[in-house]
Amino acid sequence: MSADAQHSPFRGDIQGLRAIAVLSVVLYHAGFDFLSGGFVGVDIFFVISGYLIAGILLGEMQREKFSLLAFYERRVRRLFPALFVVLAAVLAAGALLLPPSQYNELGRTAFSTIFFVSNFDFFLHSGYFDADAQSLPLLHTWSLAVEEQFYIFFPLLLLGIFTFARQRLRLILALCALASLIACEWMVGRNAPAAFFLAPFRAFELLMGAAIAGLPFPARASQGMRDGLSLAGLALIAAGLFLLNDGSRFPGLSALAPCLGTALVLFAGAGGTSAGGKLISFPAFTFVGALSYSLYLWHWPIFVFARFALLREPTMLENAGLILAALAAAAASWRWIEQPFLKRRGQPWRAIGVGVAAMFAGALAAAIIAKLDGLPSRFSRPALAIFAQAADSNPERARCHNQVDALRPYAENCAFGAEGAAPTWAVWADSHGTELVVALGERLAERGQALMEITGSACPPALDFVTVRKPLCGAQNQISLDGLIADENIQTVVFAVNYVNYQRADWPPMAAGFTRAVEAIARAGKRVILVYPIPVFTLDAPAALGLLQQRSEDPGAFGISRAAHDSANRDAIALLGGLAARTHAQVIRPTDIFCDERLCRAFGPQVLYFNRDHLSLAGARLLAARIPLDAQNQRP
Asked: pTM above 0.85?
């Protein structure tokens, strides 16, 4: 059976796989914790896309009807109409709900989305699992960019192989997939965001689907084998959905389970039916599968804008309502946007011409938004003054805060305080110490003293602690510890950590490494000060506070409940209490400054944070004022 014939009939198993993929992503984004690996829905989509596109192209090549122009015309009709309607809606909603800086960023990301390079944009500016990235309405378009970049090169590659090495086509595709997988696994350990966002490292997923496209299920194989392979495939998909999480080493080898599972279901359903295929082909599921593209496009902006409308995280019940709203939008989009354009026929150049015109019109609108700095004239002066506090951070952050993408020698750490004075203090922390060094340095400067900044992005002062995204953290911390112990000038070391930033799976090694670091500093005869957890929020604080001001609401009402803060940091509080007792460290409790019994606030009466989870200089000065500059016998 030809690849084209294979893909022409309706296949319920493919629609079922699409439903699994999109529902997994939607539920994951809605915060349903039971689906900890829901993000692999995108990987399922990639395999399906590679399978379908390769099957169609191979069929056309076999019949000598392949046309690159026709291929791109189909891509335009398939992708552009729904995408550009969503982009228009997102830009309009952003004008109503987003502060200038976020609207400016939306203009930039809309521009990159239109030209299908948003994966590069998000790679350079954020990470998919970063909390701050959860406020980007177009974050999910990175996967569309990866697919489109694949579609640019893949038809030419396939045509070349088909023309010159047709008998080895699947072997060559499989070898290309293997090369991409090896490169991805190598890159995960060195630059995880690059492995996640960039097409060469994700190509193996699409190529896995392409390698089996048009490959008939063996005629001599039993129905039992077909059923067994399909059920094994579903089991592998389930393993990815339920066993992976945000802290997993991903993609790379971790992505093989859902990708291989998808490939098995597709292969088992070629030219027949399978038990697994029937299991996921019931009408409601196939209907969701039909909506999958529009549902994927609509769901994420709806979630993001709900946060800005509510200025808090939606409840689970509210998220369920948002899912229903996304389904309704997807159904309307599928019925009145997707289907009419897919059924329309005409000269290929006309559809491509309309698509190019839409791209440039959308790009112009996006560029205007970015060029005009997010249209700040939409807001009052008091609201703009609050938004501006997003810049109230360490002015030397870019130079002095270590991103831990390369090892920094101890002697290259920055000093704050009295100019020319040898540092007698050090702040050893992850990013929660970067503004504290400025504020504490100001106090020490009045005494002719200075301090050293030893801060690492997502790298707490914990010995031997590494994560997928910060593989050099352990080595960097060893350099810092050795330097501090050998530095006779350093008398006091302040420890600060964003404890809730580390995954539950990372907590045991992080806590053990942190304990060893603190105890080693104490054994070296240096004074230790432990800063308890600083409250963090789910939204960017200046943005939320400015929006409240614009709405004539009380900025002092924005925050996180004290109970939620204490619950999230229960393990950290217990760890610090035990450490302080053993090492006779002094302790500073930020909750004494920023919280009452009910609420931890980001305003009072200044903006105390410059983003979602980092103190502004104004907030850091309040914290630094609580740190005793002279040794005291303070116990927890």
From this structure: yes
